[in-house]
Amino acid sequence: MRARTCSAPLILLLLSACATMDPSPGELEDPSPQSPRFANLQRAAQYPWTDDGKCVVREASNEWPLLAERCFHALDRDRVRFRNVTKRCAVAYADAAAPAVVALCVFAAPEIVVGAVIVIGAVVVAAAIQEGIDAYQRNASRERAKPQAQTQPAQEPLANRTPKPKGSSTGDIFPPPPETTPRRPSCEPIPVRHAGGDVPHNECADKFPPNRYPGMDVFVGGERFDALQVGVRVLWEIKTHQFDTYNAFIRRRELAKEVAQLNKERDAAAACGYDLVVGVSTQAHKDALRGQLPTLNVVVTGCTR
Q: How many other CB atoms sit within 10 Å of the CB of residue 87?
């Protein structure tokens, strides 16, 4: 096993716990150099770890925010300094300014922000991470050496196939009856792709909270939210339209629609143990919402269309 050193670099933050059971470094799914797992191992190699990087190797197949959250406890924080360069962390709560929460938020940011995470001294790549990187590169080399042409299994002629009974995808003659009892909406966050093609809106949802699942909305309690903030149980609804430019009639209609929507979302979030924060682009929009819902947590993001 060889050790390498990395120069002290870039960004970090997050907290939580790792499970047990160390995987074999050779259990690497995708041999592509662009694999998220490989990218996570390379990113984690820049930082000092107290467990030789075992948690990182175990969680490397997840997206970086989730890896950072689960392995933050294993980071050697005595050798790391966190700077809230973008000022996006610590906006949801008054107590979010607590150093551990801000540090976790900074470390878990999906993108690397120069100067946000500073490592004190040189870093020797953690043993488990180095083994994982080496094993990954060996697997990638073997995959590249394999013949590209693969023999496809012969297909049975359509004329010889036995048709399945109509109305059944499995061939059952008597398909199961439809469900009569609706399922209870899940409180487990389910990431789904951002709806629509509003790029400025989606960028604000990803970067401002910041979003635990970049590029994703999240379903919780049967409602769809724009983001789940890293490091805390906070769901976000983002509004980027220019409320100030509407005439009085349009403002009233838009406000009534938003109030109904936000009441449903706040109830769903609260039932699942989450808080709801609404991000708006302007102070006028915040004032209008707070006038209708005085207890609603609203922050001005400054995001524009």
A: 8
Say whether 211 sits in a helix, a strand or coil. Answer: strand
Residues 31 and 87 in one domain: yes
For 257-275, what is the mean pLDDT?
Answer: 95
Residue range of the domain that includes 227: 190-300
Residue 294 reports pLDDT greater than 90: yes
Q: How far apart are CA 144 and CA 137, in angstroms?
A: 11
Q: Which two tokens stand for residue 145?
A: 């050496």
Domain count, the chain: 2
* Spatial distance between the Cα atoms of 207 and 232, rounded to a whole number of angstroms: 15
Query: How many CB atoms are closer than 10 A to CB 297?
Result: 17
What tens digit of pLDDT does each residue of 142-168 get? 777 766 655 555 555 555 555 554 444
The Cα 208–Cα 302 span in angstroms is: 10
Q: Residue 68: inside a domain, yes or no?
A: yes
Answer yes or no: do 138 and 196 share one domain.
Answer: no
In residues, how long is the chain? 305
- Domain annotation covers residue 264: yes
Overall average pLDDT of the 53-59 stretch? 93
Three-state SS at 281: coil
110-128: pLDDT as tens digits: 888 888 999 998 889 999 9
**199, part of any domain:** yes
Q: Burial-class residue 58 by CB neighbours within 10 Å (0-12, 13-18, 19+).
A: buried
Pairing of strands 297-300, 275-280: parallel
195-201 contact pairs (CB < 8 A, 24+): 195/224, 198/240, 198/305, 200/240, 200/303, 200/304, 200/305, 201/226, 201/238, 201/240, 201/303, 201/305
